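Suppose you are handed a protein chain with no further information: no name, no annotation, nothing but its sequence. What can you learn? This example shows the usual starting point.
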Amino acid sequence: MKFELRPSQERGGADYGWLKSFHSFSVPGFPAPVDSFGALQVINEDRVEPSKGFGLHGHREMEIFSYLVSGELHHKDSMGNVETLKRGDIQMTSAGTGIRHSEYNGSDEEQVHFLQIWAVPSQSSLSPKYFTRNFPDSDKVDNLLKVVAPVGSEGVKEERESAGPAPVHSQVTVYATIVSAAKAVIHTLPDGTGVQRAYIQIPQSSGYNRSTARGSRMRLNNDLEIAEGDGVFVWGQPGEQIRMENIGETPAEALLFDLA
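A reasonable first move is to predict its three-dimensional structure. Written in structure tokens, the prediction is:
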């Protein structure tokens, strides 16, 4: 198995005052060594100040989802969906032939912190759809919880609100975990032909930091040590395992992306 670190401080991004943002992959204005990985196109870690946000804008031919770390994110779109998302929520927009939406901090007091992820759809010209799911922290503690999975896979329902993973029209499966101090979780790479890929991202849960990663820390396979803000590219054979051990003193939250 091969790991390649994407250090937090090497991510693109900027502090605009109302928005503090990191970009794991290339986006306009912020070139990076890697512009995608499998179906993954974007992992942006954003912090938006109270009552600020992104005005009405359009997307097409992309699967877009947000993972709420803290605060409130108010969403409104051209399909008539209006709601405020909080910690534990995942919002999935299948943009298909085209949608327009706005996203604002739903609080006038507290910053909102979330990861927005884009994935390339497995087919084009889909009808736009919108989904939300909620996953309490208790389900993630010392467990890799499947929170996003391809349409048609086990337990996935194409319903606006439902139990189980959020449906995505893309070859990406996402797991969320909160690993307690001195504990570990293990992920087995799925069956497939040839080398399997995965990506791991640790949010900056303890606070915004543009320098070397700090905060909660993890060790992968008794080898690579990572901290908040770091990402890791993974290559391995089907059936090989990734062991994610918390080597810090505070719970470590992470997302793991399985990529075909």
